[in-house]
Amino acid sequence: MGGSILARLVIVSNRVASPKERLAKAGGLAVALREALNRRGGLWFGWSGETEVNPPAEPKVTKAGRITYALLTLDPEEQRAHYAGYANGTLWPLCHYRLGSLSFHRSDWEAYRRVNAAFAKALMPLLKPDDVVWVHDYHFIPLGTELRALGFEGRIGYFHHIPWPTPEVFYCLPSHAALVRDLSHYDLVGLQTEHDVRALLTYISAEAKGWIGPGGVVGMQGRRFRVVAYPIGIDVDAFVRDATASIGGQDRKRLDASLAGRTLAIGVDRLDYSKGLPNKFSAFEDLLERYPEHRSKVTMMQIAPVSRGEVAEYRALRRELEESAGAINGRYAEFDWVPLRYLNKPFPRPTLAAIYRAARLGLVTPLRDGMNLVAKEYVAAQDPENPGVLVLSRFAGAADEMSGALIINPYDVEGMAEAFDLALRMPREERIARWEDNMAKVKARTIHDWCDGFLADLAATGEMLSGESEQRPVPRSVTGH
User: Fold this and answer.
1) Residue 322, domain member (yes or no)
2) What's the pLDDT at 481?
3) Per-residue confidence at 474, pLDDT binned at 50, 70, 90?
4) In a 3-state reduction of DSSP, which class is residue 190?
5) I want to staple 108 with a disulfide (CB 3.0 to 4.6 A). Which of 4, 86, 191, 280 is the partner?
6) Are 58 and 75 found together in one domain?
């Protein structure tokens, strides 16, 4: 399992950002992976986004620039049970502490494993012995197990982009033991925060009866692997360029004209129950009610692209937010001012950068989030001479790094409103000091540091895990863990 970081990189993710897909349509993870592969080249393997009865067993392979794309089409019922059923009907609510929304069906669990086995079988002929395979997110936790069963002996890493639940929550999942056994077939398991690492290691120690060594080395059921936190970042330089270039641009001119000198508060979230959007709307309404001096002086814009619109709970959330926005505007709007602008559409990165740059408040208030890169994008887009204030949920992974933010509890609506008021009244000197603190953290951990740090540790971990001692030292990653 030796080799160097220069070995070919193979990335596996559920959705693949094709060369023709605009950044506005690709999700945050897909954009991050495309940027990583563009820097070093390799193979990107995933779902084509299409379904077909009796689909071909082999993926469709194309190449663009330094990236080879291999896309597999799935049977519609298998895709539904795997994606909407187990991945997003079971694992997503579990990992976001929404047990009331968790739905577990053995048929979905079985389809989840079948799809992972099919992906492994389709990927295996494309692999070379020295390839480094990097599997992404909760859709493919069993993929390492399936690749090992087919005889792949190279290095395999897994990164979990969403929160990892505490043992007390994880126990609610009937298949919890099988999923952690699946993790043991990877060489390196990456999580977003130290909190996530503690949650998984506590489970391994208490429930799986494994041992924990220095540097996150784990021994469990005859296998050895590492569990390490790698907080994901953004392409800071690119975002700063976009934000700076927006000054005087058409998007900024249109936005400024529409605001007519009013202060802007911005929220950008996928339309998902984990994002805490009803609480955010309620907090803004409470701000207008309790602090009338802000009426007609501040406009909140919430961008919330529709997500999983076929799921009943998401449709209900959309209706709730539409009704809430209508009620707020109906109560507080003036003939020349609409308090809340609610948009169910995505925008390209340059447009978002322009909006962030213009906003005095960045409202990132999820109920639970793995990292939340919007928080880091907002910070990167600010004017160093007159920056805005980041209002950030303590339950976003970014809260561990963004010490210059106003940290709030999204379950405390009145407390959020008070934080909004504090941010609106904050003097320029304090805003600059807070922004400088946050920006230093954003620059210290970019998307490139995240990628290089994980892959460097994965290359070294294969060697370090081959020894006999349970206390064998392990390499220190660039993220400081």
Assistant:
1) yes
2) 41
3) very low
4) strand
5) 86
6) yes
Give me the active site residues, please: 161, 369
Name the helix (H) or strand (E) containing 5: none
pTM, full prediction: 0.92
CA distance 15 to 83: 11
Do 288 and 268 fall within a single domain?
yes
In a domain, 475, yes or no: no
Lowest mean pLDDT across 9-23, 122-136, 207-221, 241-255: 9-23
CA–CA distance, 41 with 400 (Å, rounded to integer):
32
Give the torsion sign (CA, 348, 349, 351, 356).
Answer: positive
Per-residue tokens: 236 = 């800071």
177 in the same domain as 283? no
Are 172 and 306 within one domain? no
49: containing domain: 9-233+447-464
Sole residue written with tokens 């790698």: 230
Helix (H) or strand (E) holding 215: none
Cα 112 to chain centroid distance, Å, stands at: 21
The Cα–Cα gap between 363 and 143 comes to 36
Cα 199 from Cα 240, distance rounded (Å):
35
Distances from the Cα of 244 to the Cαs of 238, 303, 355, 357, 389, in angstroms? 10, 21, 11, 8, 18
**What CATH number should be reported for the domain holding residue 191?**
3.40.50.2000
**Sheet hosting strand 298-303, strand order edge to edge:** 340-343, 298-303, 263-268, 361-364, 389-393, 406-408
For the chain, the first-to-last Cα distance in angstroms comes to: 22
**E strand residue ranges, 109-255:** 132-136, 155-159, 188-191, 211-212, 217-220, 223-229
**In terms of domains, do 151 and 247 share one?**
no
Total structural domains in the chain?
2
**Rounded to an integer, what distance in angstroms lies between the CA atom of residue 61 and that of residue 352?**
33
Nearest Cα to 481, choosing from 195, 93, 74, 127? 195
